[in-house]
Amino acid sequence: MEIGKVLISKEQIDQRLEEMGARITADYAGKDVILVAVLKGAFMVMADLSRHIHLPVDMDFMAVSSYGAATQTSGVVRILKDLDQEIADRHVIIVEDIIDSGLTLAYLLKNLQVRKPASIRIAALLLKAGIQSVPIDVEYVGFEIPPDFVVGYGLDWLGKYRNLPYVAVMDEDDITRHSEG
Ligand code: IMP
Ligand code: MG
User: Fold this and answer.
1) N or C: less crowded end of the chain, CB within 10 Å?
2) Partners of 151 in the beta sheet?
3) CB atoms within 10 A of CB 147
4) Average pLDDT over residues 140-154
5) Ligand 1: which residue has its CA nearest to atom 11?
6) Of the residues 39, 67, 99, 100, which should be mutated to test ligand 1's pocket, given the most ligand atoms within 8 Å of the CB?
7) DSSP string, the chain
């Protein structure tokens, strides 16, 4: 298994996160904002995007894992780590690395809505265009990408490559999806 070509460079990511941060800063001025990142993949987006949000935001983290066969997202999600904080009446922004089937996020949205936040929006660095099996409204999107398996910038293949500063495509042969988040 080899890393293929660079799809999105470090410079492109930096610039796009700055733009997304500027929009969020403008949209949420004066509001009580809590950024919620989904571990592990979103840790890098959280770190870099949050530094472009010039508001006194709170931060929290969740960890989830898919039930069932590890080769495909099942949509049945187990919460491994829940939020530490209450979100009632607060403005939640879910920070995600990538939206693929959208099933994980659909579950999370439903789960968090029950807690009666003032609002929930999604900020995702990557969106695999047109393949969501459930409609997901993503307010802040970094890049729309083809439905290939990608690694880097938080995204892993079998636990590795999260530390690459760019997003790269994995070479074709024997890519299996997995559920490390
Ligand atoms: P979902 O299919 O939208 O539920 O995706 C759930 C999770 O699968 C994402 O948050 C990622 O952690 C992981 N994932 C989906 N596509 C990729 C990929 O191309 N590379 C690495 N991880 C991925
Ligand atoms: Mg993830």
Assistant:
1) N
2) 168
3) 11
4) 96
5) 181
6) 100
7) --EEEEEE-HHHHHHHHHHHHHHHHHHTTTS-EEEEEEETTTHHHHHHHHTT--S--EEEEEEEEE-S-TTS--S-EEEEE--SS--TTSEEEEEEEEESSSHHHHHHHHHHHTT--SEEEEEEEEEETT--SS----SEEEEEE-SS-EEBTTB-BTTB-TT-SSEEEEPSTT-------
Q: Fill in the amino acid letter for 144.
A: E
**Position 95: which residue type?**
V
Report how far residue 180's alpha carbon sits from residue 65's, in angstroms, rounded to the nearest whole number: 7
User: Ligand 1 mean position to 170 CA, how many Å?
Assistant: 13
Pocket probe for ligand 1: among 155, 157, 175, 176, the residue whose CB has the most ligand atoms within 8 Å is 155
- Report CA(97)–ligand 2 centroid distance (Å): 6
Q: Domains, the chain, ranges and CATH?
A: 10-147 (3.40.50.2020)
pLDDT band with cut points at 50, 70 and 90 for residue 69: low
Q: Which atom of ligand 1 is nearest to the CA of 155?
A: 21
Q: What is the pTM of this model?
A: 0.91
Q: Tell me, what amino acid is at 168?
A: A
